[in-house]
């Protein structure tokens, strides 16, 4: 678990727009055995973001109302007839443990930038 990825330059990190958003809704995507559709409030805008929570949680809707970190400048991707406009940051998936949300320690305004 201690394999650190190759070094990157600060300029590479500056390309990623990571923001706090509040999860407004979680909807099932019937065509997928893994994906659900989130609608996320980023303050000035809302985004639809598809995430693979079905097999990770008994009740994916339990995250409604929670703030979490999202990449908002990832190129849109069409999956299961929906357009995903970002990526949820979670903790644990890459390590093979049940993922948890990456969250601010206390509420902050939606759209707040990380980094």
Could you explain the architecture of this structure?
This protein has a single domain, classed as Nucleic acid-binding proteins (OB fold (Dihydrolipoamide Acetyltransferase, E2P), Beta Barrel). Helix content is 4%, strand content 35%. The protein contains one helix and nine strands. Strand 8 and strand 9 form a beta hairpin. It is globular.
Produce the secondary structure layout:
Layout: H1 10-14, E1 18-28, E2 36-41, E3 46-51, E4 67-71, E5 77-79, E6 82-84, E7 87-88, E8 90-91, E9 100-101
Antiparallel strand pairs: 1-2, 1-4, 2-3, 4-7, 5-6, 8-9
Share of helix, binned: under 10%
CATH topology: OB fold (Dihydrolipoamide Acetyltransferase, E2P)
Arithmetic mean pLDDT: 93
The largest sheet, given as strand count, sense and whether it forms a barrel, is: 5 strands, antiparallel
Any idea how many domains? 1
Per CATH, the superfamily is: Nucleic acid-binding proteins
The total of beta strands comes to: 9
Which structural category fits the helices and strands?
Answer: mainly beta
Give the topology string: H per helix, E per strand.
HEEEEEEEEE
Features:
115 residues, OB fold (Dihydrolipoamide Acetyltransferase, E2P), 4% helix, globular, two-stranded antiparallel ribbon, mainly beta
Briefly say what this structure is:
With 115 residues, this protein is mainly beta.
């Amino acid at each position: 678990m201690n394999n650190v990825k190759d070094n990157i330059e600060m300029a590479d990190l500056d390309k990623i727009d990571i923001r706090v958003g509040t999860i407004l809704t979680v909807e099932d995507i019937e065509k997928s055995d893994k994906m659900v559709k989130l609608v996320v409030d980023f303050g000035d805008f809302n985004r639809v973001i598809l995430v693979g929570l079905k097999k990770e949680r008994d009740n994916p809707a339990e995250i409604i109302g929670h703030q979490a970190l999202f990449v908002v400048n990832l190129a849109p991707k069409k999956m299961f007839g929906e357009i995903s406009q970002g990526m949820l940051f979670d903790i644990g998936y890459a390590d093979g443990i049940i993922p948890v949300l990456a969250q601010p320690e206390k509420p902050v305004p939606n759209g707040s930038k990380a980094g």
